[in-house]
Amino acid sequence: AATSGDGKAGDILIRDANAVSLLNSGSISTSVNQTTIGEGGIINIEPQSLVFANDAQVSSRTAGIGDAGNIFIKDVQIISVSDSLISTETSALGAGGNINIEAERLITDNGARVSARSTGPGTAGNVTTQINERLDVQGGAQFAVSGEGAGDSGMLTVIAKLAILNDGQMLASVQSGEDGNIRLQIEDALVLRGESLISAEAFNDADGGNVDIATPFIIALFPEGPNGSDIQASAIDGDGGRISIQANTLFNIAENLAIDGNMTNDLDASSGTGIDGEVVIENLEIDPTQGTAT
Hints:
Order of helices and strands: EEEEEEEEEEEEEEEEEEEEEEEEE
Shape: globular
C-alpha cells in the first residue's frame, strides 16, 4: 500500500486467523513516496499465532513529507521471528512510524530485527513490545531504534514477565540528533548471556541516551566469549548518558568500562572525550509493571 499524492495510503488489516506465516522473502509493506504529503497506511496484524522466517519483511517507510504508517501486531499467543525484519523507516522530513507488539510469547532468533530507523531529518518511530510471558532475543536478534542522520532517535520500550537475551541486543543510537532511550520493565527477571548487549549509544558529539530498567533480578551469566554481556549508555565526544536500575539483586554484573576483550559483564555510562554519565542502582520497592497498560 503506497501513496504518491496528498491522500493517505490504504491500511493493511490481517485478523481473525488462527495462524499466519510469512516466509521466503515474503513482504507486507506500506510507503510514502518521495515529495508526497499524504501519510502512510497502518499495518495491523492480529492472528492467534504468527511466524516470520527466511527473510520475510513487514515494513512501513516514508521518503516524503508525510509520516510513515504505524505497525501493530497484537492479541497474539506466540510470535516467532527468524532471519526476518519488522521495520519502520524515514529518510526524509516525515516521521517514522511506531511499532507496537503485544503477545503472550515472542521469540526472535537467527539475526531477526525489530527496528525503527531514521536516516534523514525526520524523527524515528518508537518500538514498544509488551509480552505477558517470556521474551527471547537470541542468535544475533536485535531490537533497535536509531537516528542515523540529522533526525532524532526513538524510544525502545520492553515490558515482559521474563526477558532472556542470549547473543541478543536491545539498541538505541543517535548520530547527531537527540533521544535514543531504552526502558525495560521486567516482572520476574532480566537474563543476559552469550555476549548480549543493551546499549543507548551516541556517536559524534551527540549525548548518550538513558537506559532505565526495573526488575527484581538482573542475572548476567559468566562470559562465554571475550567481551561479556554489557549495559551501556556511552558517548564518543558528547556526554555519557544515564543507566538507572531499580532491582533487588544484580548477579555478576557491575559498573566498569566495557572494553573489548575484558571478559566481564559491565555497566558503562562513560564518554570518550565528554563528561561521563552515571550509573544509579536502587532497591526495587514497587512492582515493575505497576501502572502499565494492559
